[in-house]
């Protein structure tokens, strides 16, 4: 997991802040089953041997995020 996420380490403080801001305004709780499903999918993608671009696209689809791939690099 650490090796897979290492290219994104520099962005962690910014991503953490964005996550906390998003959770503050979120009024819809996420069911535990949904959380576990997302987590399992997330780990499965990280453990795959995909290129960084494919990895980002797969993670975005799991999280339902729309972020340009260039913003991650």
From TrEMBL:
It comes from the Archaea. This is Uncharacterized protein. It comes from Candidatus Methanogaster sp.
